[in-house]
Design goal:
This protein has about 230 residues and is α/β, with parallel strands linked by helices. The protein has one domain (about 30-225): Vaccinia Virus protein VP39 (Rossmann fold, 3-Layer(aba) Sandwich). It is built from seven helices and eleven strands. Strand 4 (about 55-60), helix 2 and strand 5 (about 80-85) form a beta-alpha-beta unit. The model has no long low-confidence stretch (mean pLDDT about 95).
C-alpha cells in the first residue's frame, strides 16, 4: 500500500492511497473531521453519563490522529480509559514522523505522546498517559477477536464503503455489536443508506446527525440488541 502525504483545508495532514484514490481523512480538514465525528459526536456524547472508566475500540487506527485527540481531551481527566486500536496496515515510521498533528495541537505533551503511541509495541498494553491504557492490534477486523471488556465507544474509521465494502456489512457490524456494551455508542463519518441499514440489522439504534465540513450528515448508533 503506497501512501503519500497531503495537506487538507484546515492545514492538517492526511494520507492519499495510490491506486485506491482514497484519503485517510476528509480533504476539507483532517483534524476538523476527526474532532467532529469521533470526539464531539462520540467521546463527548458518551461522557455525558459521567463514567468512571471507559473502553474504546477504534476500527482503523491509521495515522493515530483519533487516538491523540482522545488522549489529550481534558474531559477524560480522572477517568480510566482502555483504548484498543485495530489496524491491519500500519503506516511507516518515515510517514508518521512527517504528520503535523502534534504541532497543531498547541499542547507541549503532544509530540511525545504521538511518538510513543506509534512506537509502542503491537499487542502490548501500555499506560501512555496517567490512566490511559493503549493496546494496538495489528489485525484485520474480519479476524479480530476482542479479548478486553466490552467497548463503551466505537470509532468506526475504516476506508469508505465504496473502497472496503466488506467492512460495512451487517455481518461486520453484528460482530462489532457483540464487542459493544449495551448502550454503547458507535460513530462513523458515513451516512450511506446501506450502512444505516446494516447497523440497524446488527442491533444498533441509528440516528443521522450533522456531519463535518463537506458532509451534510454522519451517523451515530447505540447498541440496543445483538443477534445470536
Amino acid at each position: 500500500m503506497h501512501r503519500k502525504l497531503r495537506i487538507t483545508d484546515d492545514g492538517s495532514h492526511t494520507l492519499m492511497v495510490d491506486g485506491l484514490n482514497e484519503h485517510y481523512h476528509s480533504t476539507y480538514g483532517a483534524m476538523a473531521e476527526s474532532r467532529h465525528v469521533f470526539i464531539e459526536a462520540g467521546l463527548h456524547k458518551m461522557l455525558e453519563d459521567k463514567p468512571r472508566k471507559l473502553s474504546i475500540l477504534e476500527v482503523g487506527f491509521g495515522t493515530g490522529l483519533n487516538t491523540l485527540l482522545t488522549i489529550l481531551d481534558p474531559r477524560l481527566s480522572g477517568i480510566r480509559v482502555n483504548y484498543f486500536g485495530l489496524e491491519a496496515y500500519p503506516i511507516e515510521k518515515e510517514l508518521w514522523q512527517e504528520l503535523n498533528y502534534p504541532e497543531l495541537m498547541q499542547d507541549e505533551s503532544a509530540p511525545g505522546l504521538f511518538r510513543e503511541l506509534h512506537e509502542s509495541e503491537w499487542g502490548t498494553q501500555i499506560e501512555i498517559n496517567p490512566g490511559f491504557y493503549l493496546i494496538k492490534i495489528r489485525q484485520k477486523l474480519e479476524d479480530y477477536q476482542h479479548a478486553g471488556e466490552a467497548a463503551d465507544l466505537v470509532y468506526f474509521d475504516a476506508f469508505g464503503p465504496d473502497v472496503q465494502p466488506e467492512l460495512w456489512t451487517p455481518e461486520m457490524f453484528r460482530k462489532i455489536a457483540k464487542m459493544t456494551a449495551p448502550g454503547g455508542i458507535l460513530v462513523t463519518y458515513s451516512c450511506k443508506g446501506s450502512v444505516r441499514r446494516a447497523l440497524k440489522a446488527a442491533g444498533f439504534e441509528v440516528e443521522k446527525i450533522p456531519g463535518p465540513k463537506g458532509k451534510r450528515e454522519m451517523m451515530r448508533g447505540v447498541r440496543c440488541w445483538v443477534l445470536g
